[in-house]
Design brief:
The protein has 157 residues and is of the alpha+beta class. It is built from four helices and five strands, in the order βαααββαββ. Strand 4 and strand 5 form a beta hairpin. Helix 2 packs antiparallel against helix 4.
């Protein structure tokens, strides 16, 4: 298997996408952050001293998607047409589920942007709540679906 991010000298390179056609691209990713039930209740009641946790985490995820190329060395800078971050509170398992959706029209996909948005949203929740719960767990970061490009529509099984 040839790695596309390795040049002839065996060193890292950014893949040349200049010959690829523009197409509609979309990716969905998800992540979860588990916490103590008391922490979840503080978030839902607005009792976290740093402010509205989910509103800040939502904006952080959107900003992170837009900056992915500055965080991940081989990612191309992309003109994103849409970034959405949504939260579902799972009281039974004392966690917040994070779902992201990123879209653009371009030569390369937006999977990394969707994953980055989910991860940074979770990290923001952690940061805002760590004073009351240092042992929160972030996990289950996955790409759920991608559309567009040469590989077409793919969904996680």
């Amino acid at each position: 298997m040839d790695f596309t991010h390795i040049n002839e000298q065996g060193r890292a390179r950014m893949v040349d996408v200049s010959e690829k056609d523009d197409s509609q691209r979309e990716a969905r990713a998800s992540c979860a952050i588990k916490m103590r039930p008391e922490t979840l209740q503080l978030i839902m009641s607005g009792g976290i001293k740093k402010g509205d946790v989910l509103a800040v985490a939502q904006v952080a995820g959107i900003m992170a998607a837009k900056q992915t190329h500055q965080l991940i060395p081989m990612c191309h800078p992309l003109m994103l047409s849409s970034v959405d971050v949504n939260f579902t509170v799972d009281e039974e398992h004392s966690r917040i589920l994070i779902k992201t959706q990123v879209k653009n029209t371009g030569k390369t996909g937006v999977e990394m942007e969707a994953l980055t948005a989910a991860a940074v949203s979770a990290l923001t929740i952690y940061d805002m709540c760590k004073a009351v719960d240092r042992w929160m767990e972030i996990g289950e970061l996955v790409l759920d679906e991608k559309l567009g490009g040469k590989s077409g529509h793919q969904t996680r099984e």
